[in-house]
Design goal:
With 137 residues, the protein is α/β, with parallel strands linked by helices. 43% of the residues lie in helices and 18% in strands. It has a five-stranded mixed beta sheet with strand order 1-4-5-3-2, sandwiched between helices.
RNA sequence: CCAGAUGGUCGGAUGGCCGCUGCUGUAUUCAUACAGGAGAGGAAAGUCCGGGCACCACGGAAGAACGGUGCCGGUUAAUGGCCGGCGAAGGUGACUUCAGGGAAAGUGCCACAGAAAGCAAACCGCCUGUUUUAUAACAGGUAAGGGUGAAAGGGUGCGGUAAGAGCGCACCGCUCCGCUGGUAACAGCGGGGGCAGGGUAAACCCCACCGGGUGCAAAAUCAAAUAGGAACGUCAGUCUUCGCAAGAAGACAGCCCUUCUUCCGGGGUGUCGUUCGGGUAGAUUGCAGGAGGGUGCUGGUAACAGCAUCCCUAGAUGAAUGGUCAUCCCUCUGUUGCGCCUUACGGUAAUUCAGAGGACAGAACCCGGCUUACAGACCAUCUGGAUAA
RNA sequence: GCGGGUGUGGUUCAAUGGCAGAACGAGAGCUUCCCAAGCUUUAGACGAGGGUUCGAUUCCCUUCACCCGCU
């Protein structure tokens, strides 16, 4: 995409507040793959240039060791991928599923890129003039 | 060599690329670069005990209540931990396990079965006597045997007796006294008593000892916004008092409440600004040098203590300490099959190749324990058995 | 991280240490032309492991799961 090549994202900051997670989940824009779920919403900063990411690994993933490992792999995937393919001015939330632990790392990168591509195409569709409230997600 | 017992150590290794969080140094745009060096455990877990530390409460001591602990001695900051000993139970043994005070202070309970479940009593029995041809009935004695039960008022043997019975005796058990050893728990020996005194205290209880409460989201410092508080200034309708004035006090008016409108009554209340104090979000400290660890010596059976010397070893906060790739190591499975056994089929299996797997588990103020989870590997001491010399 | 609490049939709850029960639900039968309702009847549980006791759902210890409170 042309727009992405213009994006020069110098830093990826981390979401930490429960309020932000609830706001992004209420945005109802998400895409599910086998190993993860990606949610996205427009950021609330006035600057509009930030790119923020939140990570979630619930107790369903496993005990503390497994949750921590899932978050570390998520961070590594996001660090390698989102700098090129993410859109700035948006907040992302990545949720780990159980397959996060057993899948290979290449598969995780493919899953994340696929989710981002589908979400970006949905947003392109939005700019075409449709009402965003009637988005069938 | 096989099977065990006890105690301890480790719990994947190396390298490439890309990253994360503190610390130190340098540079500057003062929060960023670069360099150096550091960065999870034996259980970090469960939160079951004990302390440090912080705040709150409290004049001291004792008692009551509540909770806990419970053989004896030692160790420790302290403990319900640990070490040593005693007793009981289990094991051929090394060794292991034990909430292991008091049932002769009192209360409660012991279902069903059984005659009887607690000051003993007597169902079937046994024995004697009377009546009766006999069977049997009645009266008395007795508790050995049977039966019930988890448990039936010491056990075994001999004597004794009409039958029996601690009725008598021997041994064992119980209990009391004395002596000896031991700090003690307790053990040994001797003598007396003559069988009373069932079990249950993880039932109430009694005795001895211990315990103030809350917990780093404790607490301290700095300190936005909003609301409320205090001080000062400013403005505010009328009247009265004080005062030359500035101003202060009081009353009425105004505004709000008293369900709604009016009147009466009652209650409350100034506007704005600045500052202060308390204090929330947030930030910093608390917070990593400590009941610290390694080695050696000394004392002690040991837990542990003392001395000397060396070392500094995580500090995150939606929570770092990694991600990925390659090689090696270990285990398992499959393929090939040197060699060995076998006539052969076949069996075992060095090696090669391929695949899968490599446990339990992540610090959150710190420390001492306990408990629970854990693939495997190694070391030391000891026990039982087999073989050889 | 810290502090509390609860585990009993499929569900909601009882039960002095002595045969584990009630209601609803499930199955079968009776009744009815059929269904519902009603009546009769059956099956089904003490979270797990140890200990004390003659005997444990109950008492004690360990463990597992779940719930609540503290920002």
């Amino acid at each position: 995409m042309i727009q992405q090549s213009e994006n020069k994202i110098r830093k990826i900051s981390v979401l930490s507040r429960r309020k932000d997670f609830l706001r992004i989940a209420a945005g109802r824009k998400k895409w599910v793959s086998n190993s993860m779920i990606v949610q996205v919403a427009k950021t609330t900063d006035t600057d509009g240039s930030a790119l923020r990411v939140g990570y979630t690994a619930s107790k369903r993933v496993g005990n503390a060791v497994k949750r921590s490992r899932a978050k570390r792999r998520l961070r590594e995937v996001v660090r390698r991928t989102l700098r090129d393919k993410g859109q700035r001015g948006h907040d992302y939330v990545v949720i780990a599923r159980t397959a996060m632990l057993s899948a290979s790392f290449d598969q995780l990168i493919r899953d994340f890129s696929w989710c981002l591509r589908r979400l970006n195409s949905v947003k392109e569709h939005n700019r075409g003039g449709k009402n965003p409230d009637q988005e069938p997600m």
